[in-house]
Amino acid sequence: MKKRTALLTSALVAALLSAPAAAQLSVEKQIEFRKAAYQFMSWNMGKIKEQAIDQAVPFNADQMRAAATAIAAAANSGMGALYSPDSAMDMADNTRLKPEFFEQPEKAREVGMNFAREANKLQQVAASGDQAALASQFGAVGQACKACHDDFRGD
Ligand code: HEC
Question: What is the CATH number for 104?
Answer without folding.
Answer: 1.20.120.10
